[in-house]
Amino acid sequence: MAATTDARPERTAQVRIHLTTRSDDIQLPETGPILVPTELRRYQLSTLVNRLLETTQPVPLEFLINGQFLRTSLDEFLTQNGISAETTVNVEYVRALIPPLHVASYEHDDWVSSVDVLSNTAKAIRMQESKRKALYAPRILSGSYDGMLRIWNESSEVVATGTAHTSAVKAAKFLTPTVVVSAGIDRTVRIWKHDYAETGYEKGSLAPTLELYGHKSSIENLAVHTRTSRILSASSDHTIGLWSNRKNDLPAAAESLLPIANKRRKLSNAQQCPQRGPLSLLQGHQSQVSDVCFDEKDDTVAYSSSWDHTVKTWDLTTSACVDTRTTSQSLFSICHLSDAGLLATGTSARHISLIDPRASATTISAMTLRGHTNAVVSLAEDPRSPHQLVSSSHDGTCRVWDLRSVKQGSGTERTGESVYVIERNSAKGRTKRPEAGDGVKVFGVCWDSTVGIVSGGEDKMVQINKGGE
Amino acid sequence: MAQRAGQKRKVVEVPRPQPDPQEEDELDAVALNGALEDNDSEEESEGSEEAGLDEDEDEDELEDDEIESDEIPSSEDEEDVRAQVDKLRTNDRPNTPPAKLMGSDTAKDVSSLSPETPMKQLGQEGRKRKQLLRTEVDANGEPRYIYNEIEPNYDSDDSDFLVPTNTIGNIPLSYYDEYPHIGYDINGRRIARPAKGEALDSLLDSIDIPEGWTGLTDPNTGKPMQLSGDDLEVLKKLTRNEAPGEGYDPYPDMVEYFTGKGMEMTMPLSAAPEPKRRFVPSMHEHKRVMKMVKAIKEGRIRPYRAPTEEDKEQDDAEQDFASYDIWSNEIPRPDHPMNVPAPKLPPPGYEESYHPPPEYLPDKQEKETWETQDEEDRERDFLPQDHSALRRVPGYAKFVKDKFERCLDLYLAPRVRRSKLNIDPESLLPKLPDPNELRPFPSICTAMFKGHDGRIRSLNIDPQGRYLATGGDDGTVRVWELQTGKQLRRLRLSSSEAVNQVSWQPSRETCIIAACCGENVQFIIPQGDICNPQQDRRSREVLDSGFGYATSNPSKTAAGVDKPSSANWLRPSTTLQDKGVLLTLTLRSTPKTLAWHRRGDYFSTVSPSTAATSTAVAIHTLSKHQTQHPFRRLKGLAQTVCFHPSKPLFFVATRQRVRVYDLQQQRLEKELQPGAQWISDISLHPLGSNLLVSSYDKRLLWHDLDLAATPYKTLRYHSKAIRSVKFHPSLPLFVDGSDDGTLQVFHGNVMGDSLENATVVPLKVLRGHKVVKNLGVLDVEWHPREAWCALSGYM
């Protein structure tokens, strides 16, 4: 082959590339290295791979060389990174992530603390045991600092509101399409029944069915497991509550934790929900627990992050702490990446640290994703790709990360950079991001494959961003 | 002659009235001056006129010398001589008895002689002297000769008139100090003391010293001795060693060697033209040369002498001597320790060649720049030059100069080898750890709490580290969620008065905010799910427990009379109670700071503006609703206080001092002198052995309480007054906030064992806080566990 290139010197330089991928559906038949001209760019390479795959509908692809996305021509990339054109270059191709564009913003009365999405592809439906899987029009649930829960449809109308919380709601989740869980500063976890119209855009209702008492301080976050109907609550009283949505499973609530009976309030709340206590309280953290999540594969394992710099692994059957990983910063959010087997944690030190929870892991932090300029308070996994996640931060941005795009940093540290930055739409006109994310802090984010990236924040908006399909 | 001698002795007795002393002095001085002058002239004339009396003259001169040299006048001898001279001059007879007695009127002489003797002598000369003297009888009845006064006019030939001679004998003149006179003349008359002049005159004399002033006093006359111009000239010459030897004639006759008659010089140049023979070859010489040529041709003259054996030997010897190598047998010796080897030069390059390649040759511009450059600035000290052949290379022009400079170098080279210390300046700096190793520390603004109107005077984070309480000029107390910056509660305590201080009670079971607003201290249980029901109940119990105590145990003085309480503990109005304010403590003056004891039962307030210093500091007991003023009298104006975290110690900061009191022993434990003009805030390290003091004069002072009363470290980094300083409750950090709008974060590690000094490392300057109306950061506060700090200022 070299002889042929020598024979035709007027042709541009060529490089031998080896195409690989980690996605099974777009796997190429084993071809061995192929010779391509170095002037190729992403688009040409993408068409080349599509032709090799013989796809009917072209799949847009991105190309990763040594953990870096190819944004220029091959030639420029090789010279920039000092890679010899005579070696065989390993090129990994991945499905292109379309830049998420702003779709809609739903306006609230107060800051939005958390968001969740119910759609046909949402986890709450996917994990449902029943075979009867109806088709749902997407719903967006938001919890706000004014103590209200709101369920929106896609045409930015409020379908239902829930007003049982006495102060700010800090977390709200769909347990099943009909059950909503919420918690907030008033120390209660509330279970709601959401009646939705099958047809979609009609008004629904949101009625409290259960009040769960057990925490002594405000609840920061919730995690739900649909199949086992388990709810985990992370509270700032240093404990994690394990709850169920079934009234009969739960013990009675402790009297001392019930709110002081106020005559006036009692009169107004004529009909009262049953009050219950926790299945168990997981104690072990030294400081307030910021976030909690279930293991994606094993429903008896949960992970929690705390301000005391630790990530704890809990065995829910025995309610015991199995493992503790100590980092050097306060952790504000946690998310389990099932395929990579890693825990993504958002820290007060403005980065996302990927923690290996396995007992055999030698290093605590497998990877660090840097780019945020303020505390990272919420994380969500890409429902389509196990390698991507989105994070929301107090700096007023959401960032999309790809774990395959890795750079070897100083020492053993591996760092990644964000693929896309989603700014708040409300801060669009401003030339400069406000200092400390003042006014545009993002508190909650959720990624659904149907709806897109949903985030809510200090600008009293729920913002939906979606990549073009 | 005789007449003159007689005149000499004459003293005119003039009936003298006694004038006032000053006038007399003046007059006398004039008279004596004239007399001195006369004396001189007399001597001269004597010398020239009477050559025959050489001996006497000499004697006389000697006497004069003596007088000049001696202070004590020997009037007797002098008189003796004078008498002899007189006798010689006046009397022909050689054998006359000594005339000693004649002029002497000393008591001794007079007494030893019979009164007749002089008379007899006088009888012999009486006729002659009749007109010169007259005889009187003195007080003792003895005869006394009074000489006529001589008129010193021009007609008088009395050139050797002598001054009235002092006759006091061989006694010091100082005996007469207390008298107006200094002695007596020959006629027994007082010789008046010469004018000394007033003190001012003498001062003036001393200021402009007249020429010839000697500072000596003539012993005879008592007048100052002056040197004449001639004398001065002589002295001057003596001092310059210009005095010629004996026989030197200063004015010799001129001998005319070169000028004068018959010595005129004739002009050596002539205007005659050069003779022809000067330009024409000499025939004679030609002949002689030809003769020699002929002789050489014929062999009669040989141009060289054939060298003889002797000559050859001599030549060889000379040759040997010239080529003798005196160093051939030299034994090599080691270099002198101070040997300075010549600098090793780099090997020559192309440009140093006599015929360098053309690219090494400088062009015109290079040449010009080289020439215009200063010699020291030149890159090379030569210009490459091209010579077609080696033999055309001229001698090295700067050879001598180079050698001279080398010699100069050697000569000026230091003979003592100085050992230079190779110290890395970095090593002298104290070793500070890298700030990156001291993480975590606050480095970025993560949240802003917006809502207050005007200044936020105080802020405090609750013991759990979740909520932030603030109080400001708008009279409200607000509670915020620390992480997000969400305002959870707002409570208006007053519409006119500012909230000076908010502080959470340091207990985990309760949830109480103490807020100083005006003259009140309000105790607030924040509503709205900030505290849970247990905490709420416990807090209410804590606040209410004192009511029963206060009523059952009213504070009484020793006399049993109810003490007029300086503070009232009351329940606030029901509207406030609904908002969560459950207890109000009203003081008589405005409390500015409030400090809790670690257990949360005691707290102390400081009212700097109060009139009486005794009530400025108050310690309150929450559980008993008691107020005590621990100081009967406090020196200085109290600024702030704090409790020791473990010991019963109480720190009181006045404007310039920090005093430490033992509350159990009730005595002053220690007094710190930070040296600040006006202390703004103090903060005690959680271990309790170190104290930070901030001052309005831009200084931050670190006190080690185990060490001296003066600061261990002074940190002066702010450009404006420091308002507040805080140690971190658990991490080795501290932070100060200043009016220049910056926070400075320091690492301050205190060792537990007091053996090592505390390390203080500046970590970070946090900017960004706006300075409004010259007010920057008013208060700072740490999160109880994390390296997060909150600051407040003007909104």
Automatic annotation (TrEMBL), chain A:
Pfam families in UniProt: NLE, WD40
Gene Ontology CC terms: nucleoplasm; PeBoW complex; preribosome, large subunit precursor
Localization terms from the record: Nucleus, Nucleolus; Nucleus, Nucleoplasm
Any single GO BP term: maturation of LSU-rRNA from tricistronic rRNA transcript (SSU-rRNA, 5.8S rRNA, LSU-rRNA)
UniProt keyword annotation of Chloroplast present: no
SMART domains: WD40 (SM00320)
Mapped WD repeat ranges: 162-193, 212-253, 282-324, 369-405
Domain NLE: 15-78
Gene3D superfamilies recorded: YVTN repeat-like/Quinoprotein amine dehydrogenase
Keyword set includes rRNA processing: yes
Gene Ontology MF terms: ribonucleoprotein complex binding
SUPFAM superfamilies in UniProt: WD40 repeat-like (SSF50978)
Entry function: Component of the NOP7 complex, which is required for maturation of the 25S and 5.8S ribosomal RNAs and formation of the 60S ribosome.
HAMAP family per UniProt: WDR12
Family listed: Belongs to the WD repeat WDR12/YTM1 family.
Subunit structure: Component of the NOP7 complex, composed of ERB1, NOP7 and YTM1. Within the NOP7 complex ERB1 appears to interact directly with NOP7 and YTM1. The NOP7 complex also associates with the 66S pre-ribosome.
Name of the molecule in the record: Ribosome biogenesis protein YTM1
Organism: Saxophila tyrrhenica
Gene: YTM1_1
Automatic annotation (TrEMBL), chain B:
GO molecular function: ribonucleoprotein complex binding
UniProt domain BOP1 N-terminal: residue ranges: 176-442
Residue spans of biased composition, Pro residues class: 343-360
Pfam families, sorted: BOP1NT, WD40
Stretch list, region Disordered: 1-129, 328-386
Subcellular location: Nucleus, Nucleolus; Nucleus, Nucleoplasm
Gene Ontology CC terms, in alphabetical order: nucleoplasm; PeBoW complex; preribosome, large subunit precursor
SUPFAM superfamilies, per database record: WD40 repeat-like (SSF50978)
Ranges: WD repeats: 449-490, 715-746
Acidic residues bias spans: 37-80
Entry's family note: Belongs to the WD repeat BOP1/ERB1 family.
Protein name: Ribosome biogenesis protein ERB1
Record organism: Saxophila tyrrhenica
Gene that encodes it: ERB1
